[in-house]
């Protein structure tokens, strides 16, 4: 019984923390409309913190991430579009700030490489399949 | 028969390619990012001067001279390591423009007294806005700027003798040649 209570307590505390987090974000960066709120939130998740590189801007406590968060916030408040904000940041920090790299000549291998390897693998498999059946035929 | 022979070594080729990239990955530093600013003009700014806040400095201050722009802060431990070499550069006559990044003026001045002041001029970037325009993501960072005020090279991290000789000096010599 005691154990069950503990789990329940932990669960409710966890939920409380989740809710607290959301409301904190809204009070720190108040925006006039729900649409802008959503824009701000999804932008922060798409942008990389350049100091702790595997964290997004929403998640990071690095001081640069705080500055960039504020910059994004101000641009969202000014009614700037996603592409304007992303262009502003990539002009300064390069494509690396985006978690999802754009399709360019330099990233072509990154985007289409997997298909290339799939084709290569399939062709090898095809080749060996033919050979094995031949061997089976011969031995029988 | 020849054809199947070739197909047999494909896994080995893939292994070699994989090894090549993995070996390369060992020597790559993910914190070294290419600057998007190479070849572009220094962003325009108007900031208070560190040692005299009644004055303001702009990007035009060292226009017409090849110089370095160094971003530093008193809270940045790596900047202390770099300062000794910057003092050495100063004694060789290298012009260094300092940008004091997200710092408190008093601490910055105290820091300069302690570790030396290699800068011709220091601008205070308290909010880090100029640093964002420069694409700064770590201190110290050093930019090589040509006579027209264009950025020619950027180094993130501590500047040292070997880097100076391999990356900065050849570029500076080239910039000097282009004048004649």
General description of the model:
The complex is a heterodimer of chains A (140) and B (180). In chain A, 71% of the residues lie in helices and 0% in strands. In chain A, helix 2 (34-46) runs antiparallel to helix 3 (63-77). Chain A has helices at residues 2-28, 34-46, 63-77, 82-93, 108-139. Chain B is an alpha/beta fold. Chain B is 42% helix and 19% strand. Chain B contains six helices and seven strands, in the order ααβββαβαβαββα. Chain B has helices spanning 2-8, 10-27, 77-91, 105-115, 129-134, 161-179; strands at 46-48, 56-58, 67-72, 96-101, 121-125, 141-145, 151-156. In chain B, the strands form two sheets. Chain B has a five-stranded mixed beta sheet with strand order 5-4-3-6-7. In chain B, strands 1-2 form a two-stranded antiparallel ribbon. Chain B starts with a helix and ends with a helix. Chains A and B meet through helix 3, helix 4 and helix 5 of A and helix 1, helix 2 and helix 5 of B.
* Derived structural class of chain A: mainly alpha
Number of strands of chain B: 7
Order of helices and strands of chain A: HHHHH
Reported for the largest beta sheet of chain A, the result is: none
How much is the average pLDDT of chain A? 81
Annotation field: number of helices of chain A: 5
Radius of gyration of chain B: 21 Å
Distance between the termini of chain A: 68 Å
The general outline of chain A is flat
What percentage of the residues of chain B does DSSP assign to strands (E)?
A: 15-25%
Helix content of chain B: 40-55%
Walk across the major sheet of chain B and give the strand order.
5-4-3-6-7
Largest β sheet strand count, sense and barrel closure of chain B: 5 strands, mixed
Mean pLDDT across every amino acid position of chain B: 89
How many distinct helices of chain B?
Answer: 6
Broad shape of chain B: elongated
- How is the quaternary structure best described? heterodimer
């Amino acid at each position: 019984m005691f154990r069950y209570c503990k789990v329940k307590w932990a669960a409710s505390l966890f939920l409380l923390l989740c809710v607290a987090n959301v409301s904190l974000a809204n009070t720190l960066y108040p925006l006039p409309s729900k649409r802008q709120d959503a824009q701000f939130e999804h932008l922060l998740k798409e942008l990389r913190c350049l100091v702790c590189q595997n964290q997004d801007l929403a998640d990071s406590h690095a001081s640069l991430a705080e500055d960039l968060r504020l910059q994004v916030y101000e641009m969202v408040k000014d009614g700037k579009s996603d592409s304007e904000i992303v262009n502003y940041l990539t002009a300064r920090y390069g494509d690396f700030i985006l978690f999802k790299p754009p399709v360019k000549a330099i990233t072509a291998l990154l985007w289409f490489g997997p298909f290339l390897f799939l084709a290569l693998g399939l062709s090898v498999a095809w080749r060996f399949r033919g050979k094995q059946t031949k061997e089976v035929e011969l031995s029988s | 028969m020849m054809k199947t022979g070739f197909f047999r070594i494909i896994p080995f080729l893939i292994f070699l390619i994989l090894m090549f990239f993995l070996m390369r990955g060992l020597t790559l530093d993910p914190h070294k990012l290419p600057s998007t600013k190479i070849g572009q003009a220094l962003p325009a700014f108007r900031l208070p001067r560190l040692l005299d806040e009644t004055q303001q400095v702009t990007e035009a201050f060292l226009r017409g001279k090849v110089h370095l722009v160094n971003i530093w802060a008193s809270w940045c431990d790596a900047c202390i390591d770099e300062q000794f070499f910057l003092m050495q550069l100063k004694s060789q006559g290298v012009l260094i423009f300092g940008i004091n990044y997200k710092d408190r003026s008093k601490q910055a001045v105290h820091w300069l007294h302690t570790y030396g002041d290699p800068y011709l001029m220091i601008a205070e970037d308290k909010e880090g806005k100029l640093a964002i325009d420069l694409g700064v993501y770590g201190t110290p960072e050093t930019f090589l700027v040509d006579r027209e005020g264009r950025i020619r090279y950027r180094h993130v991290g501590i500047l040292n003798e070997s880097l100076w000789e391999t990356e900065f000096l050849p570029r500076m010599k080239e910039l000097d040649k282009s004048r004649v």
